[in-house]
Give the backbone structure.
Amino acid sequence: MRSEDTKGIRELEIFQDFIKRSALRIDPDSVEKRKPPEPDILCKHFDEGTIAFELVELCDPTLAVLLNNTSLELEFVYTSDPSVNIIRRKRTKLYQTEHPIELLCYTDGRIVTPDDVITPTIRPYFECNASEFRRVWFRGDSTVEIIYDELPSKSLNTD
């Protein structure tokens, strides 16, 4: 299991990579790590002002434990896609912030489910149910995309 400090550092790295890959107009120097009950990240979008981001890693807990144990030699491991259960838990949490909140779902090498399977699996959980997230993003191994956007499409500026 990752320590909270290590997790926070990794989340900042993931978020900076997300900014680059998504081409969102976020000032990289404005990104700051926050502590609960606030969302994980607070940053400034050049056009939309301050935005809070909650991050969630889509990770198979069995695989994570095995990968963290460097003394094991793995030949075969049973895994499953935990994405839906992780999203269900994340959607029940409440955050304290005066800013709009967006969710960044990401993978970090601890899940075997391909990006093109994850996105259609989790998208319906946001399209059919209200949540406090105005947008939901997915940052996988090979893609960055919007899973859900409650705002009119013209408001999203990635130029």
About this structure: Strands lie at 32-33, 41-45, 49-57, 101-106, 133-139, 144-149.
